[in-house]
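User: Sequence in, structure out. Go.
Assistant: Echoing your sequence, followed by the structure tokens.
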Amino acid sequence: MPQTERSRSFPSRLVGQYALVTGASQGIGRAVAVRLAQEGATVAINYFEHEERAEETRALAQAASRDRGHGEPDHCIVKANVGNEQDIAAMFETVLSRFKRLDCLVNNAGFQKESPSDALDVDTYRRIIDVNLNGAVLCAQKALAHFVKHGGGGSIINCSSVHQIIPKPGYLAYSISKGGMANLTRTLALEFAGRGIRVNAVGPGAIDTPINEAWTGDPEKRGVVTSHIPMGRVGTPEEIAAVFAFLASDDASYITGQTLYACGGLTLFPEFRDNWAS
């Protein structure tokens, strides 16, 4: 079973770092922002809608910093549609004018919508690709330009999915965006490794977040999902956030270009637990 908040021991690996987390008003993004704050980072919390949720994330991050003895860091919220190039430029201008420096970018913003692939609305397809993939590319470009200009390296961590490698029928645009995230991660990692810049990704599996609300609150549907997970349970946002914090820290100083799957074993082809093919 996952550890409780009380039983966890949080290191302080990110003291003095400044991070930007996109799509951080809820779900995995919120958990990542809070975990980075727990480990000592100062965090910019991006949101597009629901400012009150972003403020809740900021308040949780402030409390986490205080509880861990990190004082009162200047955590902030910043509104931007990550699917819009002008919004991204303005977001980075705002964050860098406030923090002066950025050490870590977490490309987390994303969404999905179910549709038969042969009936997928083109506008919906474009919006998903713009937010999930193109937005990550444009944010990465801004972060890389900053890292290169100021020297000293930096870290980009992309929130991908098990659907980076597992097909997801009915979610064509989402699957394409996550498949693209794999090559985005590897290409940038190779291109900038010599400058001390690391680029990695995290591939969550079935996680109890709002993006999965179609099944998380339905015991029958949740049971179907769980039946396919080798570890026998759904993951929590906090478990995924721990992987992001590791990749942002010096504990991962020799890791770049990798996707770490935090999926309870979904990428192990669970249908082959029984040797029906032998």
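User: And one key feature?
Assistant: The radius of gyration is 18 Å.
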